[in-house]
Amino acid sequence: MFYARLHVTFVGVIATLVDSVVVAEFAGYCLHRLLHSDKFPALSRGHLIHHFLVYGPTQPMRAGEYHDATDHRFSLDNVGIEWLAPSAIILLFCWAAMGLLSVLPVYQALSLCTLLGWPILMFSYLHDRMHTENFWMTRVPLFRSWFLKARRLHDIHHRSVNSKGFMDTNFGIGFYIFDRCFRTWPSGTRVQLARLSVGHRALWIGRIGARVIARLQQGTVSQGNWKQDSFAKHKSPDVQSDEHATPRHASPECSLTGAILSVIQALLKNSIVKPPGICYIQ
């Protein structure tokens, strides 16, 4: 009776939920991959703060609380404009498509809620908890195995950099079906950075860092109020001990390029770089 009043069926509700989750997961995968492609540098630069300054390839992946990468930038909660703007476009496109296909309003509302809620659950809530210690899922047997596997794959995403300076694997968060479909699943031919000698690690960091910086400097855009104190808050212990390694970038307001250069130069000046648990290169 309830479904009849709304002119919907149980099968229709389930189909709408499943379809919306698949579309949301695919859209999240594509957007995440786009942010790592440099096809839209202004968006990529915002995402690289998270990947090279806060949770970089040689930095700890977890702490007592999540380190926000949107300090002094426009964001909703801790979701930056690089996610918000494309997501709004995708949501509007899906709404328009359902209107053109004459989908019932109740199904449209259910779909839009799912398209909005699933990315918040996966790409915001779950993602942030992958970078915190003692998350509740690690203590619940029903979720423990799945969550630890997903977290390990996300660690590889952060620590896997190809020879061009791009992070190119594991763009999903909780599920990686599209990584398998589009061949962004990590291959077995990668080498652990932790096994390299100190000299080779320094050479690798310098080489990849130079390529990342070269990409960022194509149409240099200042990151506004990205302050040195905000940058220092997220540095790893290895980098914090070398605060004045790059005086030319010690101004109160520095560009993202300058901040990343500071990290790389500090790592190169340290005699020992602490090896991470897992770090892969091609």
Q: What does this protein structure show overall?
A:
- This protein starts with a helix and ends with a strand.
- The longest helix has 26 residues, at 10-35.
- The protein has one domain.
- Strands 3-5-4 form a three-stranded mixed beta sheet.
- The model is unreliable at 189-201, 219-254 and 267-282 (pLDDT under 50).
- The chain is built from eleven helices and five strands.
- A hairpin with a 2-residue loop joins strand 1 and strand 2 (79-80).
- It is mainly alpha-helical and 282 residues long.
- Helices cover 56% and strands 4% of the residues.
Protein topology:
Layout: H1 2-6, H2 10-35, H3 41-54, E1 75-76, E2 79-80, H4 81-100, H5 105-129, H6 141-159, E3 160-161, H7 177-181, E4 191-192, H8 198-216, H9 228-233, H10 237-240, H11 256-269, E5 280-281
Parallel strand pairs: 3-5
Antiparallel strand pairs: 1-2, 4-5
Helix pairs in contact: 2-4, 2-5, 3-11, 4-5, 8-11
Question: Which features characterize this protein?
Answer:
disordered C terminus; 11 helices; mainly alpha
- Briefly note the structural class of the backbone: mainly alpha
* Helix share bin: 55-70%
The share of residues in extended strands comes to under 5%
Q: In order across it, which strands form the biggest sheet?
A: 3-5-4
The gyration radius over C-alpha positions equals 21 Å
Order of helices and strands: HHHEEHHHEHEHHHHE
Count of β-strands: 5
Largest sheet, strands/sense/barrel? 3 strands, mixed
Extract low-pLDDT stretches. 189-201, 219-254, 267-282
Tell me the distance between the termini.
59 Å
**Average residue pLDDT:** 75
> What would you call the shape?
globular
In total, the number of domains comes to 1
